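Hi R.,

Here's the chain you asked about this morning:
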Amino acid sequence: MLNWISIAAVNMAIAVALGAFGAHGLKAIVSPQQLEWWQTATLYWFIHGLGLLLVAILIRLNYATQTTAWLLQIGVIIFAGSLYAMTLGAPRWFGAITPIGGVLMIAGWLWLAVSTFRLNNVAV
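And here is the predicted structure, written out as tokens:
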């Protein structure tokens, strides 16, 4: 089994580093629209890094499955990664994959809801 707590901690470190880079390194060289993409990507990385930490704890307690963690992790990489790439000059059509990441993140949260509901009902 993967150590999702460590993976979540690395996600948070990445979010801090990319947030700092956006605030200090990109502000003067990208457009306001590009900076907004960067900030959105960083916000979602932070939120889902914290969410992944919660899910990791729930996995350790057998209240959640690794599927939730995988969906959140892959989702945030695709969602935020595509926004970061566009900020750094990738073509605008690259943004067409951004919603795929969003759908995976939504699926991860819904998977958590369903799996914890099912696990709680089995324990009763």
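One quick note: The chain has a mean pLDDT of 94.

Cheers,
M.
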